[in-house]
């Protein structure tokens, strides 16, 4: 079974998550391609899809949005999962007691529910390092007040990524088309 893991990453944290998902799916016997969404024009030839993006201001990056919207018919017809990365830090709940990961869901999760009917969605924590910031994002580094509220570090929870990838592999193994 062929699986495409498509991602949109700005600084590499989301790419790392996508590659980890691809690696875990491959270890479970699936044929996996992990590709940057901006390099993909179309999606045919795959039996399943995992699409993810870094999230900024509750939105996926444009290459991931374009990929899903251009290929919605194909993704809706096959098993598809969506993920996002973005929240920083280790807090489980925010100051109001709300789940941090649930609160960080991109707008696209709701929008794409009707468009591609994903089998599952997941938000993962991201990574942030002052020294990697470039372009217009540099204002964060230039403004001490902003820089000081941005937790610095790699907050990706690899056990959660592995577990989610495992659940995808399990679902694909149980799919009728996977039985041959």
Automatic annotation (TrEMBL):
Residues spanning the signal sequence: none
InterPro entries: Flavodoxin/NO_synth (IPR008254), Flavodoxin_dom (IPR026816), Flavoprotein-like_sf (IPR029039), Protoporphyrinogen_IX_DH (IPR052200)
Protein name per UniProt: Flavodoxin domain-containing protein
Gene3D superfamilies, per the entry: 3.40.50.360
Organism whose genome encodes this protein: Agromyces aurantiacus
Boundaries of every Flavodoxin-like domain copy: 3-169
Cited SUPFAM superfamilies: Flavoproteins (SSF52218)
């Amino acid at each position: 079974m062929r699986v495409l893991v498509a991602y949109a990453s700005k600084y590499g944290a989301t790419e790392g998550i996508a590659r980890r998902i691809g690696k875990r799916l491959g270890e479970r016997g699936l044929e996996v391609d992990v590709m940057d969404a901006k390099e993909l024009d179309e999606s045919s030839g795959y039996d399943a899809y995992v699409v993810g993006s870094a999230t900024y201001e509750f939105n996926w990056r444009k290459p991931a949005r374009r990929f899903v919207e251009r290929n919605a018919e194909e993704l809706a017809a096959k098993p598809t999962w969506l993920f996002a990365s973005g929240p920083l830090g280790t807090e489980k709940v925010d100051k109001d007691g709300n789940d941090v990961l649930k609160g960080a869901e991109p707008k696209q999760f709701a929008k794409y529910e009707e468009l591609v009917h994903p089998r599952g969605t997941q938000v993962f924590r991201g990574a942030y390092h002052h020294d990697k910031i470039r372009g217009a994002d540099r204002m964060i580094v230039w403004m001490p007040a902003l820089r000081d509220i941005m937790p610095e570090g790699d907050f990706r929870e690899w056990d959660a990524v592995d577990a989610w990838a495992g659940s995808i592999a399990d679902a694909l193994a149980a799919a009728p088309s996977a039985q041959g």
